[in-house]
Amino acid sequence: MPFTFPHFGSLKYVFKVLLNELGRFDLIMPTKPNKKTAQLGAIHSPEFICTPFKITLGTFIEGLERGATELGMGGCNAYCRFGYYWPVQKLILEDLGYDFKFIALNYESPKEIIQVIKKEISPDLNLLQIIRAFRIMWLKNRLTDLVDKLIYKYRAIETTKGSTERVAQKAFNMIVELKGIRNIKRSTRTLPQMFENEIDYDKKANPLKVCVNGEIYVVLEPSLNLDIMKRLNEIGVHVETPISLGRYIDVGVKLNPFKKFHSQHSVAAAKPYVEHRCGGETQENLGDVIMYKKEGWDGIIHLYPFTCMPEIISRSIFPQLSKKYDMPVMSLVLDEQTAEAGLQTRLEAFIDLLARKRDANGN
Ligand code: SF4
Question: How far are the Cα atoms of 20, 190, 193, 286, 346 from residue 242, in angstroms, in the given order?
Answer without folding.
Answer: 27, 22, 22, 12, 22
